[in-house]
Every structure is written in structure tokens, then in C-alpha cells.
Design goal:
Nucleoside Triphosphate Pyrophosphohydrolase; three-stranded antiparallel β-sheet; mainly beta
């Protein structure tokens, strides 16, 4: 069961995501949901009850890509927003990992979610892409632990 609670007009979500770079650190793995959305996200997903964030990211990445990787904490990101009248609080634990194999597909479908597509994107071209949240671009080449708090008002 995911840590994802709605009570009255409040929604709390606990997630784990990963910045996955290729072995020469020139590409990053991002995904896009192909339902008309025009932005890319980090791979990952919700943390389950009684699951630590590091186990969650390893599980999510394996389920979505088949990759078995080693993860190290990169940042903790607290987001506060309002959507459709609901006040959303999201805690995201972001990890770093390196994919050491050869990239055989620059674009591939998610193994457990139809309509979710992964892309290996050249870091040198990252500014040409809309990535959410924008702070991800700053984190990609920075291994220093960060604590980010975002507040987005309607």
C-alpha cells in the first residue's frame, strides 16, 4: 500500500525518484507520459507503507526499466501546491545512480505502465527540454546533498 493519503482537502504523498546517468555521465534517463503532457520527469514512484525510500527507488526502477542499480541519496525535496482545490504536500527522496551497461535504446516503453516512455537525454541538451520540477536540472551534475522546499500557489 502506497504512502498516499487524502483527508478532506489535503493530499500527502511520499515518493522516491532517481537521477540515473550513463557511465560516461553524458546522458540522463527521464520519462514522459504520452497523454499530451509536454514535460519530462525523473523515474521513480510512491513509497509503500513500512518501506524505506532507498528500497522503494530500487524496486520502482527495477519494475519500470528492469535495471538493478546502486543508489545514493542526492536530495530531499518538499513540495507544497494546490491542485483542483486540494492542498498537496509531497516529500520526495531523490537518489543518484549510474547505468554502467551500453545504452541499446535511446527511447523505450515502461515495463509496468502503459503510455510511460523513457528517454536517454544528452545532458548538454537538457535546457532544450521542459523538465518538472525545474530544480532537477540543477541536481543532475551535483552530488552534494540538497534540501529543497518548493511552494507553488494557484
Amino acid at each position: 500500500m502506497n504512502i498516499d493519503y487524502i483527508k478532506d482537502n489535503y493530499w500527502f504523498i511520499a515518493r522516491a525518484t532517481a537521477i540515473i546517468l550513463n557511465k560516461d555521465k553524458t546522458k540522463v534517463l527521464l520519462f514522459k507520459v504520452e497523454d499530451g503532457r509536454d514535460y519530462f520527469l525523473l523515474p521513480g514512484g510512491r513509497i509503500e507503507l513500512n518501506e524505506d525510500s532507498k528500497s522503494a527507488i530500487a524496486r520502482e526502477i527495477f519494475e519500470e526499466t528492469g535495471y538493478q542499480l546502486e543508489f545514493n541519496i542526492n536530495s530531499i525535496h518538499e513540495s507544497f501546491a494546490t491542485k483542483d482545490g486540494k492542498k498537496i504536500t509531497q516529500y520526495n527522496f531523490c537518489y543518484n545512480a549510474t547505468f554502467n551497461d551500453e545504452i541499446t535504446e535511446e527511447k523505450f516503453n515502461c515495463k509496468d505502465s502503459e503510455g510511460q516512455v523513457f528517454y536517454w537525454i544528452n545532458i548538454s541538451e537538457l535546457d532544450n527540454y521542459k523538465v518538472y520540477p525545474e530544480s532537477i536540472k540543477e541536481l543532475i551534475n551535483n552530488t552534494e546533498l540538497k534540501h529543497i522546499i518548493d511552494r507553488v500557489e494557484e
